[in-house]
Amino acid sequence: MIGSNTNTFSNKNKALSQLKAFLPLVLLGLVFTVLSRNFLMGNNLITILQQSTNIAILAYAETMVIITGGIDLSLGSILGVSGVVVGKMILAGVPVWVSVLAGVLFGGFLGFINGFVISRMNLIPFIATLGMQNIARGIAYVLTNSLPVSGLDEELYFIGGGNVGGIPVPVIIMFVLALLFAFIMKKTSFGRKVYAIGSNREAARLSGITVKNIEMWVFIIGGLLAGLVGVILASRVLSSQPNAGIGYESDAIAAVFIGGTSPLGGSGTILGTVIGALTIAVLKNGLNLLQVNAFWQQIAIGVVIIVAVYVDNLRRKK
Amino acid sequence: MKEILSMNGIVKEFPGVKALKGVHLDLREGEVHALLGENGAGKSTLMKILTGSYQAEAGEIIYFGKQVEIDNPRKAQEMGINIVHQEINLMPDLTVAENIFVGFEIRNKRFPFVFDFAKMNSQAADILQEIGLHVPPTTITGKLSVAQRQMVAIARMLALNSKIVILDEPTAALASAEVDTLFGIIDKLKKKGIGIIYISHRLEELDVVADRVSVFRDGMYITTKEYSQTNKEELIALMVGRKLENQYPDHSAKKGKEILKINHLRTKQGLDVRNISLHEGEILGIYGLVGAGRTEFARALFGADRAETYDVILRGKSISVRNTADAVKHGLGYLTEDRKKDGLALGLDLENNISLANLKGFSRQGIMNTRTCEANAEEYISKLKIVTPSIYQFAKYLSGGNQQKVIIAKWLTRNASILIFDEPTRGIDVGARKEVYELLNRLVEAGVGVIVISSDLPEVIGVSDRILVMHDFHFTGELNKSEVTQEKLLKMAVE
Predict the structure, then answer these.
(1) Chain B: residue whose CA lies nearest to A202
(2) Which of B328, B338, B352, B359 is the best mutation test for A, with the most CBs of A within 10 A?
(3) Which fold has domain B3-242?
(4) Residues A217-228: pLDDT tens digits?
(5) How far apart are CA A165 and CA A300, in angstroms?
(6) What interface predicted TM-score (ipTM) does this complex get?
(7) Which residues contact B313 (CB under 8 A, 6 or more apart)?
(8) Which of B107, B182, B284, B376 has its CA 20 to 30 A from that of A198?
């Protein structure tokens, strides 16, 4: 009865299934390669990676949050206000790297507030982060009077615009974080607790896991990562825009679902999220090269989300 | 008495299991026909077919002399076949009258898309008067007690002109006075000629209320008897198909020193427990009817619910438990009533579930030692004879009995020194039950403190060395294995 169902095992040690996950992305790449001679050029591939970094880094946080059964709508806003904090501090004369640290920690602090409201005040994540989405963005506008904070110290440029051996720094950060978070999810007790809470919150609690603390931490991590992306964005143009990152959390969440994480929580992988982020970037890039209207790109992404989750549902039902 | 229903040769199959193997049931006008059988015997499946939720693969249904097809629940209700579920499926935000008529609302004569609330309220009021529920028909259903809601569900039966009423474990959540009221209503239904199918495990009640009884076992129809011409022992033997004695193996442990002493445990919900002790070498049973507070007691002891007063001594030391993490740290383990709801993470694999209570023990600086986890899981799969293709099998694909073993493995992995089992054999077939009982014995022989909460009278008597009885969130009595009888326990449980 069970033997006939090939998908009853968790894909723990199956490197093959991990490679299989890349299939849709590779196919998409092949399609664009055929359609446009410029797709497979070195420069273009680097561009694709570069364009996926912001979404990918936010998506690592969203992956964790979604696996626990929650959602974070505030990451784009936290990103913006963190960038503003960094900019303001640099202009005030604070050393660049201290300002960068402060910005990231400020993001973490906002994430902590999210976590507190959700785990201690028992508000559902959707509502709590919706509130923070507005509050953080508002703070960014208030601090800057909605004007960009420009003329930042050139020392800042490295983190967003620099490169090491031809590879842009943000891309390196994206991959290092991917490895870090994949390790955390697969090989640490924290990661196991995240999956357990998402799979059955009460069973996890009754096994002695302090659910509230884990829930708190996933939002703190979200805030820290959003802060980091805020720094990267500000660094690229050496100016902090209060409206930076608007809508980024939507793309991050899309990347998570395209990557196969279940909207119900309890399952999903960082690898899947990376593929999801790359898929979105490849889609946008390929359609650009084909000179397709930018608005069609948005339609395409929406369709991919629906198709990806639908296919995933079918796979789960089997 | 006229026969109003006859179900013959009903076969129902699901992928991999034949739930009904050609069963029979008939019902007469104005009779209470009890349906007996253990979990998994096929009673609910047959009722689902009768109420249109399932379709049979083979067999016929003769209703008032005519062969019928009951394609869906609405058709069944239109035909006059209705069921009051154990969970009483009413909509708590609607009024009593609205719940009584939902789906069959009385409409305005001139504008059929408008409901005639006045008429519904007045008809509802008449029916409520008839069955003795003295609340206004405009009462919000959610505000009523369980017993009152049950009466609303029965009122609906009358409003819809039911000819057949199925009652599924109707007394599970009722106090004895409420049970009397229910039996009074059943009498009224009988006098109207309504045929009642009564599903219950409570043989003592069937003595009072049943006219005939049919026994099912393992998807098969066994027999039908006039209740007056049979007795409890015969019925139990028919249900079980084997002698009762062999079901509960003995253990060889001797009662030793006290390992747990609850001086005072009190919660805001009304739980107030004093002077309970558990000794090494004994299985302590806790018996009580639904609503007595047994699960509340277990959860308060385990830190799952907040306790106002927690004065507990564990192996000589006073402990403080404010949450589950504290309880687990002190060596307590709790196996919940509902495995699927809060016992297992069904979407995770076995190894994950087994390691779940011992993550700290399996990790260094937060990093998991996967090999140790896997070896441990393999060890328990063989020790407890868990049937699974591998430790990577998702927990949801295991049978009930094996799922229960996985949860036991989880607590043994944690080296829990006191285990609280809440309804350990719920939803587990008879063969697997014996394995669970044997595991309990091995645990107590190994020095683990074992508390077993059960609402199954024969089970709690068969398994326990000493039984505490709960009623209304207090402990009302204690009996030793040597002096216990079903009658004594039941008496303590209802007073």
Answers:
(1) B342
(2) B359
(3) Rossmann fold (3.40.50)
(4) 999 999 999 999
(5) 34
(6) 0.87
(7) B260, B261, B262, B263, B319
(8) B376
